[in-house]
Specification:
The structure is a single chain. With 170 residues, this protein is an alpha+beta fold. The chain has two helices and nine strands; from the N terminus they run E-E-E-E-H-E-H-E-E-E-E. The chain has a five-stranded mixed beta sheet with strand order 1-4-3-5-6, with helices on one face. The chain is globular. The two termini are 28 Å apart.
């Protein structure tokens, strides 16, 4: 399953979920006993207008509700899930110290990462791993059978880094 911006998917152990992230963020949740889980891919921390009806996965605050709905539908508790956060890269190459106002110091990637941490806290999942920020983009693959997430990070200012497996387990 490939997620584009605004997509959300929740499934069982036979599923791998892939996505590409720049300043966007993905959150994964995984139930280690039942081997079910899901992933979102959002572009903005929150939807400011309530004029649109329904939930929109492009916004972090709506992703929280999508996770709550998927977990509740299965009559499970969010506290039994493990969460991981990815993305929030700085795609504009802003360097610290060159800002006119304080409001310019936080990139959209930074704001998305902050929203993702709040989403996981509000959901009540156990945060295992965060691979966020920096100058670049990520390709991630979430294996619901194992809970592992493979990350390929490409630093926008350097060459590729090696593929990393983030299990969250020691």
């Amino acid at each position: 399953m490939f997620l584009n911006v605004g997509d959300f998917h929740f499934a069982g152990r036979q599923t791998h979920i892939h996505t590409l992230l720049g300043s966007c963020v993905s959150v994964t949740v995984w139930h280690p006993q039942l081997l079910v889980g899901g992933m979102c891919h959002f572009a903005l921390p929150e939807r400011l207008s309530e004029r649109l009806s329904g939930l929109d996965g492009r916004y972090g605050n709506d992703c929280l509700k999508l996770f709550q709905r998927a977990i509740s539908k299965r009559k499970l508790s969010p506290a039994d899930f493990e969460a991981k956060i990815f993305g929030g890269g700085n795609m504009l190459n802003k360097e610290p110290g060159n800002y006119i106002t304080d409001s310019e110091t936080q990139t959209i990637g930074d704001r998305n990462v902050e929203a993702a941490f709040q989403l996981v806290m509000q959901l009540g999942c156990d945060l295992q791993v965060a691979h966020v920020g920096e100058f670049g983009y990520r390709r991630i693959i979430f294996d619901i059978a194992t809970g592992d997430v493979w990350v390929k990070f490409r630093d926008a200012r350097k060459s590729d880094k090696d593929l990393t497996i983030l299990t969250g387990r020691n």
